[in-house]
Amino acid sequence: MPDFAAFGNDLYTGKRSFDFVGTRRRWYAVAAVLVLASVVLLLTRGLNPGIEFRGGSEFRVSGVSTTDGAPGTDAVVSVVPEAEPPRTSSIGDDAVRIQTERLDADETEEVSTALAQAYGVEPSAVTSSFVGPTWGQDVTDKAVRGLVIFLLLAGAVLAVYFRTWKMAVTAMVALVHDVVLTAGVYSLSGFEVTPATVVGFLTILGYSLYDTVVVFDKVRENTQHVLTGTRRTYAEAVNLAVNQTLVRSINTSVVALLPIASILFIGAFVLGAGTLRDIALSLFVGILAGAYSSIFLAPPLFAQLMEREPRIAEHARRVRELRASGGQRRPRAGRQAGAPAGAAASGSTPSRAATAVLERVDGPEDGVEDGVADGVAGGGVDADGAGPVLRRSSGGQRSQPVRRPGGRRR
Fold first, then answer.
1. Does the structure show a pLDDT above 80 at 172?
2. Residue 97 parent element (H or E)
3. Domain 4-49+136-310 - what CATH class?
4. Which CATH architecture has domain 56-131?
5. Which of 113, 165, 243, 381 has the most Cβ atoms closer than 10 angstroms to its Cβ?
């Protein structure tokens, strides 16, 4: 059985890596196809708004022997044949819900009587309620307003926190991606959009934003000093951050999806708790979409935007030239990003000439290059062959040269 902890450690240290940024066109294509399909569904089939949004009358028949909606439909049509066809749905194993357009008091009483006769229950087992169109429109307006305010505030907070508008823009793109996909699934499934669905939408936006912020926080850490050295390009530093947070994102998503899947598939479909289905479906689809966008969409898009800056493009060009000329090796597998190696790891201090060579090759934030560092730290002399290597004490101060047997100093 594979060791998932060792797999995660290999991703974090760079021993194993997936090129999310380098293959970004593939992930863009997948996201574009899904978003386009969702938009087509929304334009052709549209959403199925619940009675809370469109208004109307609702009847509930309890204690029925069958949850088939046909008797309810026939009963409503027999009273108001000119009305639009009613919507019927089952609630558990012994209740039926029938939703119609707005009915007056006399029509409501007649439909209640017809429903009791159709399902063979007492008239008291039929309850009715009415939702006015004004209230439904008010709910719709507030839902849209809440969504817009959330996006604006989230973008402003991200821009201030990460000190760059590019991260805010890419995070907003990921959020829109998640909302459109979730709405497309609702259009495809025909599930009603209720206030509980809106709550689920806002919840998945918060979850997706949280996941993206965690990845971007690691991106900021890895790219903070990447331009001062030539160990890796900006895009490679971003890709390393995605790999380092990959296992955390997978674990978080799986843990969040397990109880939601129980509510959706067991509570809604098996037990028939229809009210749970409205929020559970939005959460289930939204968390899946959010996990995808925070790994495959937002970081590669951010790296692409940053690579358009002249200083970052010039840095990437210098790194590629050094690699092509053989003057720089790729980071050794198993080392963490930014971790010192060679002389810095062994505690030795190269001379000024060697320091100049090593900083030219690797940059101060990455330590020294593997091969050169090993030669400097292990050979006992400076990189230019002149003078002893002074070793640092535990307090970081230079100590006197240590003499080797035979009078040689080391």
1. yes
2. strand 95-100
3. mainly alpha
4. 2-Layer Sandwich (3.30)
5. 243
